[in-house]
Amino acid sequence: MSGSVTAVTQMWSRRGGSYTSQRFNTFANDWTITEAYCVVCTVDTDIKTIRNATGVPQHGDAHATEAGTYVESVQPEQVSPILWIVTVGYVGIALDAGDIDVDWTDTATSEPIDRDYDGNAILTANGEQIEGLTVEVPDQVVVIRRKFTSINTYAIAAYRRSTNSDEFLGWPPGTARLVGFQAKNRFKFGAPLELWDVTARIQFRDAFMGATAEQAWYKRWRHEGMYVKVDGVIQRARDPLGQETSRPVLLKVDGTQETNAAAALFKYTKVFGSLAYSGLGLL
């Protein structure tokens, strides 16, 4: 750099701005602010020295009075050998808590079934269980978009392994699960305020096949195995001919063999933790 700056003065005559919004009834989204500075210098001063002069806002600097507003552009223009006008452009984003987009959609997964809609076991005429049948289970999905000043991705990771412990959007505890979280840093130039566009996807599952709401995301499995309890002793299960069976047999709650296929016992295993979804701050 060469030359030197002797004075920097903000110009009152070149202040301006604009506000834009996708909503017809409010200007609550993005805005721009324009300011200009008169820079007096020696004749040998180059443009880089003008741009970096003390008193001229730099790229990423926060606006003096408007929160969430930062310098996006700095444009020096020489008007005489010793005079420059530097136009500074700011961009701001409103952090309005009410500026939330909520979209409902749905998805479907194929789940195995062993009982019909009325809860009756699906069996052959000889009382054997039918395997391999599936049903399409429709789930509702909510997509929530909003802005945050900061996010904690480590804390959010715990939600990916948890269902809701509180009522969320009208759904009881255990039915909601965070299945997607996307965060885009709008701009961050070392400023103390970060602005993030966050999109969260939460899937809701209605309990079925005899599960409670709390068990909506539990794993359901039939209580069966290759070993049974006989007179308090665990031994290999045998078929009606007395031979060791090559397939699992049904078990009662005490581990003894269940011979009535219609009375098959099902257990539910918790595979996700439980957290208050209000802590996500999405609504």
Structure description:
The structure is a single chain. This protein is mainly beta and 283 residues long. The protein folds into 3 domains: 5-93, no CATH class; 101-217, no CATH class; 221-269, no CATH class. It is built from 2 helices and 16 strands. It has helices spanning 47-51, 153-159; strands spanning 5-20, 30-41, 69-80, 83-93, 101-112, 134-148, 162-164, 176-187, 195-204, 219-222, 224-225, 227-230, 233-236, 249-250, 266-269, 273-275. The strands form 6 sheets. Strands 1-2-4-3 form a 4-stranded antiparallel sheet. Strand 12 and strand 13 form a beta hairpin. 14% of the residues are buried.
Summarize the structure.
The protein has 283 residues and is mainly beta. The protein has helices spanning 47-51, 153-159, and strands at 5-20, 30-41, 69-80, 83-93, 101-112, 134-148, 162-164, 176-187, 195-204, 219-222, 224-225, 227-230, 233-236, 249-250, 266-269, 273-275. The protein is 4% helix and 45% strand.
Keywords:
single chain; mainly beta; 283 residues; 45% strand; 16 strands; 4-stranded antiparallel β-sheet; 3 domains
Strand order of the largest sheet: 1-2-4-3
- Helical proportion? under 10%
Low-confidence stretches: none
**SSE order, as H and E?**
EEHEEEEHEEEEEEEEEE
How many strands, which pairing sense, and closed or not: the largest β-sheet?
A: 4 strands, antiparallel
Overall body shape: rod-shaped
End-to-end distance: 51 Å
How many structural domains in the coordinates?
3
Strand content: 35-45%
Q: Which value, in Å, is the CA radius of gyration?
A: 33 Å
Task: Say what oligomer this is.
Answer: single chain
